[in-house]
Amino acid sequence: MEIPNAAPDLRSAWHMEPLISRSRGSIQPTRRLSIAIQVSLYTIAAFLSACSQSPTSDSKKPPANKLFAGETIEFVIPYKEGGGSDTWARFNAAFLSRHLPGNPVVVVRNIPGGGSIKGANLYAQRAKPNGLMILGTSGSTQMPYLLDDPRVRYDYADWQVIAAYPTGGVVYCSPSLGVSKIEDLKKELPKRLIFASQGPTSLDIVPMLAFDLLGLDVKTVFGFRGRSAGRLAFERGEVPIDYQTSAGYLKNVVPLVREGSAIPLWSWGVLDAAGTLTRDPSFPDLPHFGEVYQSLLGKETQGIAWESWLALMAAGFGGMKLLVTPIETPEPILQAYRDAFLAMREDPEYIERKEKAIGRYKQEVGTKAESIFKLATRISADEKRWVKAWLRDRYDLNIQ
Amino acid sequence: MLDAILQSLNDLLTLNHVAHLVMGVLLGLVIGIFPGLGGIAGLSMLLPFLYGMDTASALATLIGLVAVIPTSATFTSILMGIPGSSSSQATVLDGFPLAKKGQASRALGAAFMSSLFGGLFGALILTFFVQIARPVILVFGSAELFMLAIFGLTMVGSLSGRSLAKGIFSCGLGMLIGAIGSAPATGEFRLIFGIDYLYDGIPLVVVALGIFALPEIADLLRKDGSISQKSDLGTGLQQGFRDVMKHRWLALRCSGLGTLIGAIPGMGGSVVDWIAYGHGVQSTRDKSKFGKGDIRGVIAPESANNAKEGGALVPTLLFGIPGSGSMAIFLGGMVLIGIEAGPSMVTTELNLTYIVIWSLAIANLLGAGMALFLARPMAKLTSIRFSLLAPFMIMVISFAAYQATRDMMDLWMLLLCGILGMLMRRFGWSRPSFLIGFVLSQQAESYLNMAVQFYGWEMFLRPGVIAIIIVSTLSLYLSRKGVVDEHAEQTSEWQPNEASIRAQKWFALFLVSVAGISIFEAFRQSFLGGVFPLAIAFAILPSGFWILWNLWRDERKNPIVFDAEARIGSLPNQSSVFEGALWIAGLFTASSLIGFLPATALFFISILAIKARVSRLKNATLTASGLGFLLVFAHFLNLDYPMGILLEPLLE
C-alpha cells in the first residue's frame, strides 16, 4: 500500500532538497520495519518457549483447587537482573508456577535502585493482600531498615513471611599472613589487615563489626562493587583477608584453598530456632564466629556488642532472602504458598537443580521461616543505638 | 586443547544448537537496533526461557544475543545520531555526519565489516588467551585500573574541539556530574540536593542520549528536511568494505585494544569506543576530517566494540566477575542453566568455554551478514522526511531513557541533559569530552581511593603503572598534534552579534557556577567523601575563568568564542532552537499528567498534524504503529509505563 505523501509545508518551502528526497523516500520502510520487528519478536518468543520446556508447560498433577487459575503473580525483586536475588527469584518463580494451585504465571519484576530501597518502598506502597504481588528481600534490604536509613519507607511489621532462605559466609585469609589456626591471629602479623568492603551499611557491616569485636586491627577500604570485586582484590594480593557468602565461597574460594592460596578461618554459623549460633552444616569443619570469639577473647558470647553483631548477622545472613507479602494476606493464600514450597521439595527437577542454582541451604516455610523472619528484622533499641555509635566512632558515619 | 576446540565445534554444529544460536542472533539484532535496549534488556527477555534448555543451546542463545548487539546498535548511531548502546557512542561522531552527507550505506558497510573483523579477532584471541588469562588479569590491580582511567581521560586531548580550555572544562564537568550519588570511599551521598532519584547517580543511558541524541533531533526537527542531504544514497557498501581493507591495521589495532580493555574487569564497556576512537585520531596524520565524516572514525570504534565482548567473557567465565551490565546478566543466566563460572572453566569445563567461543565467532559472522543485508533498506530511513521520523525517534529515546531506572525522573533528566547538550553543541563545548569525564568519573575515584589506601605513594613504582603513564603521556602528545573538531560541520564563519556573545557569557557563567556549587557541596562532606569532586572542581576552575575572561575580552577570532547559531547567512525561516525541546517537554509533561501511553498518542497525533501535516489516515496509522511498538515491548520486558498523576487514582 502506497501512502500518499503529505502536502508541502509552507514553512519548508525554501528546502528544495528535502522536498525532492521526500518524493523519493516513502514512509513504507519505517512501517514495514516496525511490523517486521514485532513479528520477529513474537516468532522468537514462540520459538524459545517451544524449545524450552518451561516448568509451567508440563504441570503434572493439576491441583483440584484453582485459587490462582488464570492469574499472573508479580514477584518483585528490588535488584537488577542477573544478581543473586534475581537468580533465586527466577528459580523459585518457575517452581511456584508449577506448584501453586491453578498454575499462575509468575513473573519476576526487577525494580533496582538505592541498594534495594526503591523497590521495597514501591512494594510497600502498591502491594495488596491478595497474593498476586510478592516481594523478595535480602540482607541489604534489612540493613537500612534496621539502621533507620531516612530513605526507607517500608516496615517489616506490615509484612509477613512466606518462605526464608538463609545463607552463611566464610572468612578466609592469605597464606602470606602466616596464620594457620585461629589463635595465630593474636600474634603480630607480618602485614596490616585490609578488608575490601562494599560500604558501611551494606552486608559487609557484619564482617567489619566481627573484626572489631575480635580486636583485629583491620583497615577497611570502601567502594567495592559486589563481593566478587573483593575476592578479585584478594586474588590480586591487595587485601589479605576477605569473606564470601556460602555460594561464592564454594564456587570460587574452595579452588583457591585447594591450591593453597587461601586459608579458611571461620564461618558465620547459623542460628537455630532459639536464636543461638551453631556451626554451619555446609562447613561442619570450620568453627563458627561464636567459637572464635570465645577462644580468642576468652569470654562468653554475651553483652551488647555481641548481641548487636548477632542481630546484624541474623538480618544479613540468617534472613538472606525473605519472601514476604502484606500482613493482611488471608490464610488460604498463605497456605497455598507454603504448600507450594513444600511440594517443590519433592519435585525431582527442583532437587536436581536447586543446589547449583541457589545453594545448599533449605528454603524454610512455616514456623521456621517465621523465626528466621523475626530474628532478621528485629533489633532492640539499645542494640541499634550501640551500632550507630560504633558506626559514628569507627567510620565517621552519622545516621539520624 | 585442539581436541577440545574441535570437539566443542562438533557439539555446537547440530541443527538444534545452531537454531538456538540463530534465534539469539536475531533477537540481538532486533534488540540492538533500539537504542538503550542493549544486552541487559535482551538477556532479561531471554532469562524466562532458559529453563529446560540444554546447556549448549542456552549458551549459544545467550552468546548469540550478546555478540551481535554492538553490531546492530550501529544502525541508530550512524543513521540517526542516537548512540545505539553504551559502546557505540563514539561511532556517532563520524558516522552521523557521513549519513548526513548521504553516505550512510558506506558508513554502515564499513561499520559491519569492522564489527565482523573485531568480533572474529576477539574470539580468536579468546581461544588462546583464555588458558593463560588468569595471571594476566590479576596484574591489573587498583593502581593500574586508576591509571587506565587516566589514560582514558587523555583522549579528551583529541576530542576537545577547537578550544582545549573548553574541552578540559567539559570533561571536568562530566566528572562532577558523574560524582553525583554515593561516594565510593565512604558511602555518603553527595550532590543529591534531596532528590531521591540522584542517590544512584544519573544513568549513563540518560546522559548519553540527552547529550548526543536530543540536540540532533531538535536540530533536525526545526530544519524539517531529511537526515541525508542527498537524495541519492548510492551503493556505498562496497566502498565501505574497501575502506576497511584500506585501514586494516587500524581495525586490527582497535580490535586488540577492544579485547584487552574488555578483558580487564572494572574498565567497563562504555569507554572502549572512546579509547579506540581517540586512538584512531591520534594515529592519523591528517586529522582535519575527523568529526566531519571520516570513515576511520567509524572503523575504529566499531572494530573495538565487537572485540570487547570476546575480552569481557574472560573475567566473566574465569572469575565469575562480570565486566559489564550485560555480562552480569549473562552470568545470572549461566547460574540458571547450572554452569558455575570460575577456574573450572579452563579445566574440567573447558569444552563449555570453547562452545562459548565458537558461538561468539559464528554469531559475529551471522550478525554482520544479516546487518549488511539490512543496511540498504535501513539507510533509506535517512531519506525520509524528518518530521515523519521525529515522533518515532523521540518515542524511542524516551523509551530507552525510561529503561534506565523505570522512573518518570529518567525522562525529566533526559530533557535536562538534552538542553545541556543543545547548549554545549551550540556554544562549542565538547560533548565527547563531557561524556568521557562522566563515564570515567566513578572509576577514577574509586580506584584512586583503593590504590592510595593499598599502596600509598608506592603505587607509582609499580611497573604496570609506569607503563600506563608512559602510554598516557604519549597519547597526550599525539592527541594535540591536530585536533578533532566536532563543530566542524557548523561553518566557522560567523557574524559578530551582541546577543550571541551575551548568551555565551551566561552559559559559561552557568557552567562555572556548577563547579562552584560542587566545591560548596564538597566542603559539607567528610574529607574522603568530598576530596575527589573538590579536586576536580578546583582543577577545572582555572580553565573556566580563562574562558570567561576571553569571552569578556570579546576578541572574536579567539577559538573560545563560538556560536553555531550566529553564522553568516543563518537560515532566517528556521523555527526556534528550542522547538524540539519544547515538543519533548510537552510529551513529558503530558506523560506525568495522563500517563506515558496516552501522552505518546497525543504527541504523535499533534506532531504529525502540525509539523508533518500528514493526512488523517496516515496520522492514525503512524500513531498506531508507534503505540504498537510501546505495547509490544511493555509486554516482552514486563514493563509499566508512567501512569500520570491524573489517571493513577482512577486505576486504583
Summarize this structure as a short list of keywords or feature phrases:
heterodimer; A: 400 residues; alpha/beta; D-Maltodextrin-Binding Protein, domain 2; 2 domains; six-stranded mixed beta sheet; three-stranded antiparallel beta sheet; B: mainly alpha; two-stranded antiparallel ribbon; 28 helices; globular
Folded structure, characterized:
- The complex is a heterodimer of chains A (400) and B (652).
- With 400 residues, chain A is α/β, with parallel strands linked by helices.
- Chain A has two domains: 72-166 and 319-381, Bordetella uptake gene, domain 1 (D-Maltodextrin-Binding Protein, domain 2); 169-316, D-Maltodextrin-Binding Protein, domain 2, CATH 3.40.190.
- Chain A has helices at 16-24, 28-51, 84-99, 117-126, 139-146, 205-213, 227-235, 246-258, 289-297, 304-318, 331-346, 348-357, 366-377, 381-395, and strands at 72-77, 105-110, 133-138, 159-165, 169-173, 193-196, 218-221, 241-245, 263-267, 270-271, 277-278, 321-326, 364-365.
- Chain B folds into two domains: 2-221 and 238-385 and 393-480 and 497-553, no CATH class; 579-642, no CATH class.
- Chain B is built from 28 helices and two strands.
- Chain B has helices at 2-12, 15-33, 39-46, 55-72, 74-80, 91-100, 104-129, 133-139, 142-154, 156-159, 164-178, 204-223, 237-246, 248-263, 272-282, 296-319, 325-336, 350-379, 386-405, 408-427, 431-455, 463-479, 498-522, 527-553, 579-594, 596-612, 616-637, 648-651, and strands at residues 181-182, 189-190.
- In chain B, strands 1-2 form a two-stranded antiparallel sheet.
- In chain B, helix 20 (408-427) packs antiparallel against helix 25 (579-594) and helix 26 runs antiparallel to helix 27.
- Chains A and B meet through helix 1, helix 2, helix 3, strand 2 and helix 7 of A and helix 2, helix 3, helix 17, helix 19 and helix 21 of B.
Lay out the secondary structure.
The complex is a heterodimer of chains A (400) and B (652).
Chain A: H1 16-24, H2 28-51, E1 72-77, H3 84-99, E2 105-110, H4 117-126, E3 133-138, H5 139-146, E4 159-165, E5 169-173, E6 193-196, H6 205-213, E7 218-221, H7 227-235, E8 241-245, H8 246-258, E9 263-267, E10 270-271, E11 277-278, H9 289-297, H10 304-318, E12 321-326, H11 331-346, H12 348-357, E13 364-365, H13 366-377, H14 381-395
Helix pairs in contact in A: 3-11, 5-10, 6-10, 10-13, 10-14
Chain B: H1 2-12, H2 15-33, H3 39-46, H4 55-72, H5 74-80, H6 91-100, H7 104-129, H8 133-139, H9 142-154, H10 156-159, H11 164-178, E1 181-182, E2 189-190, H12 204-223, H13 237-246, H14 248-263, H15 272-282, H16 296-319, H17 325-336, H18 350-379, H19 386-405, H20 408-427, H21 431-455, H22 463-479, H23 498-522, H24 527-553, H25 579-594, H26 596-612, H27 616-637, H28 648-651
